[in-house]
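pls design
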């Protein structure tokens, strides 16, 4: 296994998720749930950790299928750790293990939760929880291939490790193009569902 190349990609993924950690901040400010500083701090932790990893390990040009599976497995672990920090600092869960479980459940779209009443979380935390499930719905590797061209090296291996269903012959000529198409459709359906929920009388935040 090309350890340096795998870790370099995971570092980039941590930086990517650090950006997503900023998305709940506007909701935190609007609802005044005092969580904006938590999300900003967690984002800085993730960006710093990811930046150090990227700086320490150079990218590899030839990643194999074993490397692809390693990226998926270890990225789930790394992202679940980063995603668990807001839960932990929020204080709504009794232990860090529960926070990690909740985060991992989101990024892997397992659908399980340790919370008897999810609504006890602050609104910005509810948005972060929904965001992890939304990212996991298509796959973090596919998202990365779509918006980070630097991850195009060994893209087929990473894509098939995350989504083993499609065969290589069914993919677009460039793996990044396939990832962008998938995420374009995913975004379209997300927007359409939000509109339908709004038309059904749901609030913008809940939709």
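designed seq:
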């Amino acid at each position: 296994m090309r350890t340096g190349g795998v870790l370099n990609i995971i570092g980039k993924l941590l930086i990517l998720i650090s950006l997503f950690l900023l998305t709940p901040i506007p909701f935190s400010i609007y609802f005044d749930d005092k969580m904006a500083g938590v999300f900003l701090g967690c984002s800085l932790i993730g960006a710093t950790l990811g930046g150090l990893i990227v700086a320490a390990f150079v990218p590899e040009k030839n990643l194999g299928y074993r490397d692809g599976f390693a990226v998926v497995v270890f990225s789930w672990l790394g992202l679940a750790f980063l995603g668990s920090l807001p839960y932990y600092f929020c204080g709504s869960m009794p232990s860090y293990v529960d926070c990690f479980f909740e985060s991992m459940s989101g990024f892997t779209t397992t659908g399980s939760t340790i919370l008897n009443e999810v609504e006890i979380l602050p609104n910005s935390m509810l948005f972060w929880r929904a965001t992890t499930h939304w990212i996991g719905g298509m796959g973090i590797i596919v998202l990365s291939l779509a918006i980070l061209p630097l991850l195009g090296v060994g893209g087929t291996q990473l894509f098939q490790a995350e989504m083993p269903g499609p065969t290589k012959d069914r993919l677009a000529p460039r793996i990044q193009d396939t990832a962008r198409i998938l995420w374009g459709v995913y975004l379209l359906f997300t927007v359409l569902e939000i509109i339908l929920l709004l038309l059904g009388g749901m609030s913008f935040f809940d939709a």
